[in-house]
Design goal:
The protein is built from four helices and no strands. The protein is mainly α.
Length: 85
């Protein structure tokens, strides 16, 4: 079971969060990103969020919650773009 989680579930969850992050960035900049770049830009956004959270020792444990906030927030904010595709 641990192997299935590590090889299937985690990459799918990361891809979904990266897509959400990309949709959030796309929404912030005004719907100008091509669809193929959404997960890549979203992954970069997640890296920036993780770095900002880990500057202080007290906020380092917030990273998973910040990822979920960015990913789900982006999926909600960009749901109209997902429907159009």
């Amino acid at each position: 079971m641990e192997l299935a989680v590590a090889t299937v579930l985690f990459p799918l969850l990361l891809a979904l969060l990266a897509l959400g992050g990309g949709l959030l960035i796309d929404r912030i900049v005004g719907d100008v990103l091509p669809g193929i770049l959404l997960p890549v830009v979203g992954l970069a956004a997640l890296v920036v969020v993780a770095e900002l959270c880990t500057y202080g020792e007290a906020t380092a444990s917030w990273v998973p919650y910040a990822f979920v906030l960015v990913g789900v927030g982006g999926l909600i904010a960009g749901r109209s773009r997902l429907r159009a595709a």
